[in-house]
Amino acid sequence: MIRKLTVLLLLAVLSTGLRAQNVEKPSVEGKTSFAVIIDSHTLEKCAPQVAEYKKTIESEGLPTFIVSAKWESPEQVKEVLQKLYKENNLEGTVFIGDVPVAMVMKAQFMTSAYKMDERKYPLEVVAVPSDRFYDDFDLKFNKIADSTQGLHHFYELAPDSAPYIECDIYSARIRPQKSNGCGCKQIAAYLEKAVREHKANNKFDQFVSYTGHGSYSNSITAWRAERQIVNEQFGEVFNKEGEARYLRYSMEDYMKPYVIKELRRPDVDFMVFHEHGDWFRMYLSGAPEDQKPADYLHTYIRSMARRNPDRIKGRLAEWGLDSTWMADYNDREAVKADSLKDLQEGIILEEINDIAPNARMVIFDACYNGDYRHDDFIAGKFIMAKGSCVVGFANSVNVLQDKSAFDLLGLLGDGVRVGLWAQHINILESHLIGDPTFHFAAEEGSEDLNKVIPIKDNAYWASRLDDGNPEIQNMAEIKLFEGDYPGISDILLNKLKESPYAVVRYNSLRLLERINDNNYREALKLAVTDSFEYIRRIAVTRMGQVGAEEFLPYLISAYVKDIHATRVVFQGTQSLLCFDEAKAEDAINEYFFDRRYYNADKDRGELLKLVQDNPGKSSIESITNKEKKSGWRVSYIQFLRNRQYHQNLDQCLKVMEDPDDDVFIRTLMAESLAWWRLSYRKQDIIDSCKKLLADEKTPEEMRPALISAITRLSSKK
């Protein structure tokens, strides 16, 4: 049987230089196509399962190519994908087995939060594993010479590359887990499971969300808002037919048993985890609230002592504690007790096979759970376990807390393929782990959105801007934005003003941010009082990044009126630090001049102290002091990527332009100011960079950073 299938796979051959690829063409026709990219060895061992997977996908109307080779470089794979995209309208791909991994440098601005020092750490540690190398054809990369390690290949984003992500196709990975044994047997079993779930005709009507300790700063306001948008996205589904559960770490001292119970439910369709994470762990709970602080501290000191006892001895003296706090750190019973307590607070790799998760799809809104550079990782374990889980959406590096995890989610309830959903919300670190063609069953007789979403026609999408389905409205906005539709900025602003749907208002705000025009400033002022907490949170955050003084009254008002929304208050106060101290003080005093509410004097005093103690003052002193140790200058300059201190910009530009300053410091400043894409003064940064590029005395090592800054700050998207 395998020999016959192998013969069939030799229907065509594409040559891309390094190795020939065996290509099996689709057996059906369609408007789009799909590609399985698989290594030759895995295909040979899993031929029947691959054939059945292809047959199943094609039975749903999606022509499927099978392309196999002993893949040696990402370029080799990408060339195949681009050819299929051009000639066969490829909509997506899945990488099965040993397919090269692109490790990306100098593109951290495309991530949500990742800012590890690329000069300080080894490539394997600091580079971002990202399949945007494959699915966004407008991104340009330069390979780093002599840097391949096994399947890992290292690249830098080119300085003149498109500075935004707009995926042309979708992609996903199916990789075996080393600790699970034979890789080919795992993939064969997984494909059999995927086929089974395709045929199950399962509706999206059983939903579970879990929020772990530390997510959203433990804000109840942020947590409660989740139900608001889920009800918008899925209409009456969870009011009548189905069930949605919202669990939180604080419901019990240790929620792990309840989470496992939900994962094992045979009927659960979808779970989302808002939690802290790593490639080997999901952090579900913190220490119980009634635990005595001394007990918690004792446990913490013991755990740290096991890593580095000498260092902890020194720290105890600094903390005013004696050696008895770590005396039992190696005691067998203490080690056992601490380990058991630690296990209660999260799920680790070794437990997942036994859990056998049944949630068909899982969103891991967490750091590193999708870090596929490791032989084993959380999302990979989920899909390779014996349960019904077939796909996860997870991050390969750390991810921002203040990031939406529900964009376009309603499309999944309408039967849209997971890949088509993810394609429009990807960031550099987000990845589908599993089958991207998986979809839930649509309502009988409903529109086939898998045929609709790939449409690229502005007139068509303009006709759907007021569709009764809010997620179709969102897709219409996205498609018109991507198609440079005339007047799209005004359309988005009107939607933000008038739409009754929070998901549409947020999508409008998100797209206006990419346009970043005067309408965007108006949108931020409206958004700061939106009924949806997440929109308010994003609005106050972006006000600091823009830095226009007209936002000061809105930030002060948000602090006063939204005081119980923890994340809104935190982000709003951080944004206040991005303004001139005197002007911020004037705005605060003016706001409180005739206000006599309870705690008004307290609020005014706290805000004044905040701006008076602004760390931006001490940081600029270090940045401009050439005698300061370079480590401090470097740290403060790099921090400008996180916090746009507009009051310090003129001095920062002088540092970048100073021919007598250290070239490394000047280059670092150019790199950091390139993050100021939303700043109302970004043109001043562009002009400074252009002036330096035109000066023949500007050092060569600075030029790539200057080009990158101009490219990013000048982008209309």
Low-confidence stretches: 1-18
Q: What can be said about the biggest beta sheet?
A: 12 strands, mixed
**Rg calculated over all Cα atoms:** 27 Å
Taken from the alpha-carbon principal axes, the silhouette is globular
Distance between the termini: 52 Å
**Structure annotation, total helices:** 33
Mean pLDDT: 92
The number of distinct β-strands equals 19
**Biggest sheet: strands side by side, in what order?**
1-2-4-3-5-10-19-18-17-13-11-12
Fold and architecture overview:
- The protein is an alpha/beta fold and 717 residues long.
- Among the domains are: 2-174, no CATH class; 293-344, no CATH class; 456-615, Leucine-rich Repeat Variant, CATH 1.25.10; 625-714.
- The chain contains 33 helices and 19 strands.
- The strands form three sheets. A twelve-stranded mixed sheet has the order 1-2-4-3-5-10-19-18-17-13-11-12, with helices on both faces. The chain has a four-stranded mixed sheet with strand order 7-6-9-8.
- It is globular.
- 46% of the residues are buried.
- The model is unreliable at 1-18 (pLDDT under 50).
